[in-house]
Task: structure prediction
Amino acid sequence: MAKNYRNAIREYVYTGPLAEPIRSFVDEKRRIGYKFNSEAQMLRELDRFAEANGCPVNRLTREIVLLWNEKQATHSTKTHRTRWCAIHQLSEYMAKHGYEAYIPAPLGTAICEHGAFVPYIFSDNELRGFFQQIDNLRNWNYSPYQHLFYPLLFRLLYACGLRLNEALTIKIQDVDLASGILTIRGAKFDKDRLVPMSESLRCRCQAFMDARHKAPNPESLFFPATDGMVYSHGTIYAKYREALKNAGISYGGRKHGPRIHDFRHTFAVHCLRRWMRDGTDVENAMLYLSAYMGHVNTSGTHTYLRLTAELFPEIIAKVEAFAGNVVPRLDGDDYENH
Result:
């Protein structure tokens, strides 16, 4: 009688840095009755991918997860989701069994946590890819300054944590090019605030000023559209979506992100990550971050502590030492409840 290969259990050899947890995971699935053939094959691809990208032994890092989950041009939607499912299940298994593992958010990363929107936090590689696309813009007759405007605008959103409307409505008189300080007036909650810039960002603002405003009126917009009015959000979003696509960053659709506002969230999380790694007194630094971002109080800023811990497991201990039970456990059961 011919052997029925369709129903046969197929064995795969794992030799990379994730071989041990993958073998244990596959064995567990098969002990409870799953054939787990296509999944086991996908995990072999993941093991090889991890080895090729320098993954440490028995550790599933955030960098490897994000690289694996990046949607390539050759990936169909089904393939993209299959890859995500494979690494998501493995990461949950590893976390539950004592391995260090970063658990990826659902595709699109817009999930509900007790009814609240959880933002998309751009990885360092995604930011590099995005700004590379934005910096490659050329000037056109219908928009002669776009090659200066968009790179500066999106850097202000990320590097200063500005809201989009704050950046678009800032006036020339509110950009102090001598001191490198922006004055944000009448923002959310009717609060004014001062926002210092880095020297490189100040220089970009100076270059834009010199090119765009030959005879500046202090009351004029710093970023005027071609008709002198405020840029429409639709125009900005169109260019943003184009850059996301060209950078290979998957867009989950309306309300799923990544949104432009997620640059502001990314700014906050990356600040906290840097402070934690540098040994900064975070308790005092949180007060400055709250004022810098224009929060009414520090409670809004504290929500970024949880995001920081979830995205960068290597600094969980430091966050917990400061914030206690603000930080959730990174295992599958807890994650699914957020």
